[in-house]
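Hey team,

Filing this mostly as a record. A colleague (T.K.) asked me to run one chain through the structure pipeline before their review meeting, and I want the input and output archived in the tracker in case anyone asks later how it was produced. No errors, nothing strange. Just documentation.

Input sequence:
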Amino acid sequence: MTGQLYTKEIKKAIVAFWLKRKKSEKRRKRPAATLAVFFEICYNKGMGKILTDLHVHTAFSADGKSPMEEILSAAKRKKFGYIGFSEHFDCRFRGRFRALENGEDVEKFAYESAFTDADRYFSRGRALQKKYAKKLTVLLGAEMGFVEDLDMQERYCAVIGEYRPDFVINSVHKTAEKSFYKEIYKNPDGSVPPKAEVYGAYFETVEKSLDAIYPYDIVGHLAYCARYAPYEDRRAAYADFKDPIDRILKKIIAKGKILEANTSYPFGDGFLPDSEVFARYYELGGRKVSFGSDAHAKDRIGDKRERVIETFKEIGFTHLTVPVRGEHILLEI
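Output structure:
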């Protein structure tokens, strides 16, 4: 199905749906249900397209709030066709993670490893995939928090090899030493480091992450460094970081990866990276984009999707790309 448009997928689903209803009609001797039921499930009349959200966290993630079932109920009400869970697998600090593994004292380490319980997550998720199979497509993904440490990357490889997630998001949340969740924005003397220094370190780390040894599909929330930044102008503007952003975008395109629009950012365009970066990505030949709310609770599923889609259309994008176990499904926007 690599590269196929959603219309072919719908045709196959319609045929399967119709055959099943015809069999049901013969058994029950009742009129078959109309195809409206099928489109009620996966076709949103308001948007006119299949709705997707491929970056959703549940209570299985350390910072998630809503159980899977509540997320899926909300997605069904909103007429989504694809929901992609992307629980955290994030070895943020090597020392603390190894201390946890060895049962040692972890109080001296600043942060926990945000590592989802894979057994519980994938076991429950696969069961819900089956339960919701006729209602919406549930994808079980993983968000890998990039670390330069190869031992930790091998741990990610092991998780992917054992549990076979439907897709993987590769994200940068920290440099080798400091997290972009507030810590990096404060020097030991209490002063704030220059924006160019912090953002430069971020883009350098992102560039390294693209060569991670574990397989991944989506590059998550590019320009994440701006989310918690204390600067008056927190944007990671393309004009200010042209060279590193160009290198990153060119490598994403060369590797055939997908660039995510992440709407967990409340400033500027309302998503990361901003429209200028997506415009440059398109100019360079990039066509693979995805939508992710980065929701950690049920009420944020699909948040600001319309804004992202309108921006994509204005730039020239025609499809979203949904990765499913190495295959790319193209959904018209």
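Quick notes for T.K.: The first helix runs from residue 6 to 28. The radius of gyration is 21 Å.
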